[in-house]
Design a protein that fits this description.
Helices cover 72% and strands 2% of the residues. The protein is an all-alpha fold. It has a two-stranded antiparallel sheet.
Length: 422
């Protein structure tokens, strides 16, 4: 069956926006290493903990704003919520820009934390990270249910999700080299400066503002049957659906391990490089996020594979690779986990909202709250690394997350009889 540009237009538009979300999410995470040098080089206590707060602030936006966005979308519709979400993204990049300007012109202004003096620009970047995380949460609350329900001929929901996530992965794959080669201009990691961020962030802010304006002019029809009518009184609580409730818990652990590997692997590599290991943090990150791209592209072409067996298979493979990497301290094996992480998001989301019909928009907002796991587990890893003096056995934390995902694939996804909606 042929698919016209008119038919696929809204699908492609949201897929492009999802690319931007993936790109900026990874840019935020990949800034951890350079900003550790630029802002926290004089910090002697809790260095890793403060560094991982960048990811914590980003994912805090998911916890505090996802469910609000679900309610907003239920009231205003997809397009108006999408535009508001992109405007928040522009504001987030503006705070990034402000942090660079603080580093350039207010470098002497510091805040004391214990015995350390932390530059004010670091805290401005943290707030920008929170704002950017809020925007990413809002956009995903809109995009995920729209893509899952969009009537694109000849496709299944999990296929559409995997394709959109694959385009998202192009952004996450190129972002590490964008950070090292463009934002920090290839300067060695021990000599980076936060002031180098000014021009890249200014350009990004202009590009996203222009994209927001063009998106506001595009056609984005609503999808019937995925939102409650404002006048309707909900028949039941969104939390009463067993498979959604456990799906939120599972995505909490999934994003914890995804972000833990994607961001903290670089910090581990930086420590090993000090011991004489020949590693490239940017290459490791690119291989990890590149694995997402490959896995999602391949899975997008699989028409007859159901999400549950797919989730179980890739989780078992990820557990095997992560365990081997932990024992041998081989970060190249850890980077390969990205190939198996690639389809977990789409599988978990598809299983979580299966059969929810008019509850889907609210469910998306609730589901995205679970992304806060990306704030919790990487910071726990950083704190454990500070206390142990090594990253090696901190990988037990994301490994435990993998077992929770496996449990959902085996048992947790099952819908209760009362969850069938007529």
């Amino acid at each position: 069956m042929r698919i016209s540009i008119k038919t696929a237009g809204p699908f492609l538009l949201l897929t492009f926006v999802y690319f931007i979300v993936g790109f900026l999410t990874t840019v935020n995470g990949q800034c951890q290493g350079p900003l550790k040098v630029a802002f926290l080089s004089e910090v002697t206590e809790n260095n890793n903990s403060l560094t991982t707060l960048i990811s914590f602030s980003f994912f805090l936006g998911y916890l505090l704003n996802s469910s609000k966005t679900g309610r907003m979308m239920n009231r205003l519709g997809y397009k108006k919520t999408l535009i508001r979400s992109m405007m928040v993204m522009v504001i987030g990049v503006a705070f990034y820009l402000a942090s660079a300007l603080c580093a350039e012109y207010c470098s002497d202004v510091t805040i004391n934390i214990g015995n350390d003096k932390v530059p004010i620009g670091y805290f401005v970047f943290l707030f920008g990270s929170y704002t950017m995380g809020t925007s990413a949460a809002m956009l995903q609350v809109v995009i995920n249910p729209y893509i899952a329900a969009y009537p694109l001929p000849g496709t299944q929901a999990v296929q559409r999700m995997n394709f959109t996530c694959a385009i998202n992965s192009i952004g996450t794959t190129i972002a590490p080299f964008f950070v090292t080669a463009v934002m920090f201009s290839g300067v060695p990691l021990d000599r980076v400066s936060a002031s180098q961020l000014t021009l890249p962030f200014l350009v990004m802010m202009i590009v996203i503002a222009f994209t927001t304006w063009t998106t506001s002019k595009a056609s984005l029809p609503d999808i019937e049957g995925t939102r409650e009518e404002v006048s309707d009184k909900p028949r039941r609580s969104i939390w009463s659906f067993r498979h959604l409730r456990y799906g939120v818990i599972t995505i909490f652990f999934y994003v914890g391990t995804e972000v833990g590997v994607g961001n903290n692997m670089n910090l581990h590599a930086m420590d090993l490089m000090k011991q004489g290991y020949d590693l490239s943090p940017a290459l490791l990150a690119t291989l990890y996020w590149g694995g997402f791209l490959v896995g999602r592209m391949v899975s997008a072409g699989l028409k007859n594979v159901a999400p549950r067996p797919m989730l179980i298979t890739v989780t078992v493979a990820a557990i095997a690779l992560m365990t081997t990497s932990l024992i041998t301290e081989n970060l190249w094996l850890m980077a390969a986990v990205g190939l198996f992480h690639s389809v977990m998001w789409s599988c978990i989301f598809t299983l979580s909202v299966d059969g929810l019909k008019e509850y889907t928009s609210k469910a998306s907002g609730i589901f995205m709250m679970g992304v806060f796991g990306g704030a919790v587990f990487p910071v726990l890893q950083g704190m454990l690394a500070d206390s142990m003096g090594s990253w090696q056995y901190t990988w037990l934390i994301p490994l435990c997350c993998e077992f929770v995902i496996l449990w959902y694939g085996l048992i947790g996804y099952r819908k209760a009889a009362k969850d069938q909606i007529g």
